[in-house]
Amino acid sequence: MNEEQLHNIRHSAAHMLAAAVLELYPGTKLAIGPTIENGFYYDFKFPDGITISDADLVKIEKKMKHIIKGAHKFVGKPASYDEAKEIEKDEPFKLDLIKELEEKGENITFYESGPFRDLCRGGHVERTTEITVAGLKLDKVAGAYWRGDEKNPMLTRIYGLLFETREELDKHLQLLEEAKKRDHRKLGKELDLFTFSELVGPGLPLWTPRGTLLRNVLDNFVWELREERGYQKVSIPHITKKDLYETSGHWEKFSDELYKIVSREGHEFAMKPMNCPHHTQIYNHVARSYKDLPQRYAETTTCYRDEQTGELHGVSRTRAFSQDDAHVFCRRNQVKVEFLKIWDIIDIFYKAVGFNELDVRLSLHDPDNFKKYLGTPEIWQEAEDALREIAKEKGVDYVEQKGEAAFYGPKVDFMAKDSIGREWQVATIQLDINLPERFDLSCTNEQGEKERIVMIHAAIMGSIERFLSIFIEHHAGNFPVWTAPVQVQFLPVSEKHVEDAEKFEKEFKEAGIRVGLDKADETVGNKVRKAVGQKIPYILVVGDKEIAGEDWMVRVRGQVDQEKMSKEEFKEQVKNESKKRIA
Predict the structure, then answer these.
(1) Helices and strands (H and E) in the chain: how many
(2) Per annotation, catalytic residue among 11, 250, 305, 466
(3) Domain range annotation of the chain
(4) Residues in domain Aminoacyl-transfer RNA synthetases class-II family profile (predicted)?
């Protein structure tokens, strides 16, 4: 079965879901029902007093499959705008869609399948019996604002899974169960990495000492790699005058996501959603010679975006997030070398954190929707050709994705597959010819003439919050030793062993090892269970034999048998794992 066929089956199933809901809950208003990866969904506004939960899905699915067995034919019928409005006169969300189609001058079609009719542009099976009921399952219920705007009504979204076979469905359900176990929101709480506060607000994570330690270990490694390649740290404020973003284009292209502030004197400011416009002003505060280039700036700093409440998800989608951001200001003939330096950093970093292979995507602009972008088609063509040349120089296979570019320039996106097969976009390198034009960034060349420079944007983790959501789920909380907030946990057998355990703790800390000490008045068994639950790599029970200088019996995460070694051997093993950054 090809992609088009599978899309048509899923799209048709969305219609059958809506038909089932209308039969079971008369008076329900219909919104939209598109296909998505692995299935489909439909949004509904149920009558007052009716609330749908996951417990209702069995009943709805049964009704849905019953309708499918009716072998109804899908028949498309065009309609004028006035006819469509009359047909959907009692459907407010459909009327909203018809109005939009009329404004765009697009054709309107209705599709009938048995007793059900829906506004739709098509892509269906011929008869409902072609929908593979063996691979069909209604999955979950969620809330969703109409058009994704929290100012609009809240709708009930019912998600469905649909695969070609029962085996594929079962495989996917197993993956979903594994994903639940790895959910970063669950593990973040269990491992005490981050929390949220009603007083602080949604989408604004608070990082605990352990979570902050994990962030810093990773960020320090990124900085180490950058420093070796000539980067310098800079620091910028978290707000800016409106003027900066008007010049950069963010006020026009990014306005809906800006947090805007008006001072008591009436001045307009914005919380920064990204750092590049600020960094241009550091470059531009003095005259630059070609001998000064490249200028490489790096900074890990918090940015802010006005994300809608319904789109927030743990720490993977937040309103405040930290970027390990860097910008290179260079001449055109230096772009390739600088890109390859960043590419090296990405390769080294992702192997160290357990992603051994990254796929490469060239994210390009959409020439059919050029109003989304800054600059001219000629500038974009030049930038995109440069990226293709660099990818070929690197000798990697890559795919091109039209419409995925940033509004100011094309980019190389790096895609990682996690341990259960899900693909994530992680690092990115962007070539920017537009912002140097808008901010008049230049250097004096060998002939004493003004020469326009270019910018390279480089994020290794990108949003550290989002990266950590991927990292936590990839490892299921079993972090590589070099990244673990607590690498070794000491468990004194009794109160009389605490003092010596504290000496071990101090000794290991002085050796650069991150150590925990459980002094609770509990049994050793309870302490071990807690340490195992916290997924600490190494656990050592401190009793008479360990204090007397005998070999230690070390519990190693994921192993049944303990390892026997001397204190010094153990200390060196942990230090070497940290130094070598073994994933």
Answers:
(1) 18, 28
(2) 305
(3) 3-176, 190-475, 488-580
(4) 170-480
Q: Which of 45, 184, 365, 457 is catalytic?
A: 457
CATH architecture of 488-580: 3-Layer(aba) Sandwich (3.40)
Q: Is 579 a catalytic residue?
A: no
Confirm if 319 and 459 have CB atoms less than 8 A apart. Answer: no
What is d(CA 161, CA 6) in angstroms, rounded to the nearest whole number? 12
Q: What are phi and psi of 58, to 5 degrees?
A: -60, -45
| Known catalytic membership, residue 411 | yes
Longest Cα–Cα distance of the chain, Å, equals 91
3-176 — its CATH code?
A: 3.30.980.10
**Stronger pLDDT, 15 or 405, i.e. the higher one:** 15
- Residue 5: active-site member: no
Say if residue 220's pLDDT is above 80. yes
The active-site residue out of 278, 295, 323, 555 is 323
Q: In terms of C-beta distances under 8 Å and separation of at least 24 residues, what long-range contacts does 510-513 make, across chains too?
A: 511/571, 511/575, 512/575, 512/578, 513/487, 513/488, 513/571, 513/574, 513/575, 513/578
Closest-CA residue to 36 (of 66, 62, 10):
10
Residue 229's pLDDT band, with cuts at 50, 70 and 90, is very high
313 is catalytic: no
Which pTM does this prediction carry? 0.86
Encode 280-340 in three state secondary structure. HHHHCCCCCEHHHCCEEEEEEEEEECCCCHHHCECCCECCEEEEEEEEEEECHHHHHHHHH
pLDDT at 345: 97
| Burial zone of 280 (CB within 10 Å; 0-12 exposed, 13-18 middle, 19+ buried) | buried
Q: What is the pLDDT of residues 118-162, one digit of tens each?
A: 999 888 999 999 999 999 999 999 998 898 877 889 999 999 999
Q: Spot the catalytic one: 45, 411, 475, 514.
A: 411
pLDDT reading at 310 higher than 80? no
Query: Partners of 515 in the beta sheet?
Result: 488
Q: How far, in Å, CA of 245 to CA of 247, rounded?
A: 5
Numbered residues of the known binding site for Zn(2+): 276, 327, 457
Radius of gyration of the chain (CA): 28
Partnered with residue 142 across adjacent β-strands are 157
- Examine the pLDDT at 407 and tell me if it is beyond 80: no
The alpha carbon torsion through 382, 384, 389, 391 (nearest 10 deg) reads 160
Q: How far apart are alpha carbons 303 and 308 in whole angstroms?
A: 16
CATH 3.30.930.10 for domain 190-475, yes or no, is yes
CA distances from 396 to 227, 412, 423, 479 (A): 26, 12, 18, 29
Residue 570 amino acid letter? F
**One-letter amino acid of 255:** S
Active-site residue, selected from the candidate residues 137, 226, 276, 295:
276
Residue 45 CB contacts under 8 Å (≥ 6 apart), including other chains? 28, 29, 31, 93, 153, 155, 156
Structure tokens at 193: 């990495």
Residues that constitute the known binding site: 276, 327, 457
